[in-house]
């Protein structure tokens, strides 16, 4: 291990929208801050970030470069690294990085986001974030009025109804033995959404976009987009050493970190922001959450420092 200096007020693990917004708020509050970032934001496969006011369509990494430059201007340090393990260190934490360095911080903000595990459909990954998609707010406009296929899942009816707002050519593909609950089926029928009981096992397309669904029966069908629902998993591995475990999200969509409204987790000194604690949050929401959590951590440190100063004053020490 390298030396463990300096001691940061806050280490932010994850430099996506949430982590960078927290970093900016804390940097502007004159905190010693380090952001540890592995550089793989969840939306990296997408061409542009949509529904981001004033920067709609900006490539994901470009947006983060802008955010990083702003945080650096306020003295925030960065490490392009993966945080691999964390241990208690007195009142704070030691964080180990994959390059061998270790950092010490009084507080941690976990902003590692989530990872998406795609359904088992051959060839799907190549088109993820292009026209294999999950979120109407991220990519819906781009596939308006097109032939949109929805892959069956527990969220398929919900997704089909959402994408129906964008196109009247939406079809849900299920396995042959699947019975959609009558009340749900009625909603699809009422909105003119077809249900085809033919199992999609693969996709094929060109260099950038999928063009065809491939069925288990060997047949193929042209499609302009395939809507899927990945399984979301919160990035908590680096915090296992201090007792953090991801919990099942109530929606059934995957895992997340349980935190109160300020981002505080049940582990003292550990906070969470962005997709890590709200897997459904869009980029602006993740950034807003990072700002809020950054401010809350600053307030927590101010309280601790004030209590220490009061204790010192009472003990007769000179005012710092
Ligand atoms: C395909 C796709 C397209 C999307 N398009 C849009 C869109 O158009 N508009 C929109 O608003 N939202 C979109 N989203 C949602 C968007 O990705 C999230 O809202 C956003 O990424 C959440 O920000 P975050 O900071 O919480 O996490 P992330 O952006 O995922 O950032 C987390 C960061 O932490 C890093 N990290 C993880 N683990 C570690 C570790 N152990 N050590 C160090 N670093 C670590 C990662 O490498 C990453 O850089 C899309 C999502 C997907 C999947």
Automatic annotation (TrEMBL):
Flavoprotein keyword on record: yes
Catalysed reaction equations from the record: [thioredoxin]-dithiol + NADP(+) = [thioredoxin]-disulfide + NADPH + H(+)
Residue ranges annotated for the FAD/NAD(P)-binding domain, each copy included: 8-290
Gene3D superfamilies, per database record: FAD/NAD(P)-binding domain
Keywords annotated in UniProt: Flavoprotein, Oxidoreductase
Keyword Oxidoreductase among record annotations: yes
InterPro entries for the chain: FAD/NAD-bd_sf, FAD/NAD-binding_dom, Ferredoxin-NADP_redctase_2
Superkingdom, taxonomy of origin: Bacteria
The name this protein goes by in its record: Thioredoxin reductase
